[in-house]
């Protein structure tokens, strides 16, 4: 999963997703330290309710917190995961004879470190499952569960040289208000309110060979968590497939009928399936326009008028109104830094 293989999804996540992480960090980092981290990335403590957070901002915040606190899991578990743990984990799993053996090593590694949860590998029929099993009465830490399962999926994908399709993802906590952010992280059907958090892959994938060199390992570690926290899968759930189709088409005047034809679906079926995923064709298109605008405003090389035209607005005034509806601020305010999260 090298950079050139990443899918051009341009992901952003909601301010609520970031707040879920920050609420955990506030119990771990002294306020001045956390404020310093946010300042270094250009993020502010007070943000607009509809603010968006980019892939790069998430990656940079992780890197800062993990290095400066000396905890590679940033206080998300009851025991500190000391600097170097991820390096030793990678060294262990890349010497395995197969993916299933690597995932067994993955679970064994975390069972030596974690006190509050056991990491269990199950092989059941044609499914291979990594589960987080609580040791006693535990309240699931949402961001911690997400991050550890993403690490399992990311390492498995890195070892096999391609992002592995997931059969399903389960979380042992109730559906959060920002549940629409999770498909950006996991390319699979996602269920909340389950007895345990887990990811499941096809059991046949367990026999895949694993092979990574020392140099590749160092590159993976240097880029962490860039290669595993966001999905780059081309086997997405339908909303992400549609988003990618719109982006690659370079036509934001795309109509639902056009998309349905390319996806080999009837328009009615496409509407019904998107509705089942709690989204819509227009919602996906607006989300993509929003994220392209955020990217281009952040880079600062295009005028606001050019960005407006590029994403299909008939006038800059219409773009200003839409951008403020999407993010809570105007494009000019965002560009000047007033939108920093």
Automatic annotation (TrEMBL):
Key word Zinc present? no
Highest rank taxon of the organism: Bacteria
Which PROSITE patterns does UniProt cross-reference here?
Answer: HTH_ARAC_FAMILY_2
Q: Which GO terms describe its molecular function?
A: DNA-binding transcription factor activity; transcription cis-regulatory region binding
**For the HTH araC/xylS-type domain, which residue ranges apply?**
240-337
Q: Could you tell me the keywords of this UniProt record?
A: DNA-binding, Transcription, Transcription regulation
Q: Which Pfam families match?
A: Arabinose_bd (PF12625), HTH_18 (PF12833)
Record-linked Gene3D superfamilies: Homeodomain-like (1.10.10.60)
For the keyword Transcription, the answer is yes
Q: A single GO CC term, please?
A: cytosol
Official protein name in the record: AraC family transcriptional regulator
The species this protein belongs to is: Parasedimentitalea marina
């Amino acid at each position: 999963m090298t950079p050139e293989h990443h899918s051009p999804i341009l992901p952003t996540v909601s301010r609520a997703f970031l707040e879920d992480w920050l609420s955990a960090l506030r119990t771990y980092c002294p306020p001045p330290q956390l404020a310093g981290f946010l300042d270094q990335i250009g993020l502010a403590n007070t943000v607009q309710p509809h603010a968006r957070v980019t892939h790069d901002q998430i990656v940079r915040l992780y890197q800062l917190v993990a290095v400066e606190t000396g905890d590679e899991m940033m206080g998300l578990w009851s025991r500190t995961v000391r600097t170097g743990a991820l390096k030793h984990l990678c060294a262990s799993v890349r010497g395995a004879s197969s993916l299933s053996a690597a995932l067994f090593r993955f679970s064994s590694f975390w069972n030596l470190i974690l006190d509050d949860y056991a990491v269990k590998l199950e092989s059941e029929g044609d499914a291979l499952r990594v589960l987080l099993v609580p040791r006693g009465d535990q309240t699931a830490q949402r961001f911690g569960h997400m991050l550890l399962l993403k690490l399992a999926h990311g390492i498995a994908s890195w070892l096999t040289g391609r992002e592995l399709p997931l059969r399903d993802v389960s979380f042992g906590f109730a559906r959060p208000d920002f549940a629409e952010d999770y498909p950006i992280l996991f390319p699979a059907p996602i269920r909340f309110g389950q007895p345990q958090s887990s990811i499941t892959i096809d059991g046949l994938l367990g026999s895949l060979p694993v092979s990574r060199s020392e140099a590749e390992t160092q590159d993976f570690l240097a880029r962490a968590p860039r290669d595993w926290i966001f999905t780059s899968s081309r086997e997405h759930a339908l909303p992400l497939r549609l988003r990618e189709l719109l982006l690659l088409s370079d036509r934001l005047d795309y109509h639902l009928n056009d998309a349905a034809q390319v996806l080999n679906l009837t328009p009615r079926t496409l509407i019904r399936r998107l509705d089942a995923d709690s989204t819509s064709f227009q919602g996906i298109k607006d989300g993509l326009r929003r994220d392209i605008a955020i990217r281009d405003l952040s880079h600062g090389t295009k005028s606001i008028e050019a960005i407006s035209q590029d994403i299909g607005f008939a006038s800059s005034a219409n773009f200003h109104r839409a951008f403020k509806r999407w993010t809570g601020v105007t494009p000019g305010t965002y560009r000047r830094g007033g939108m920093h999260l």
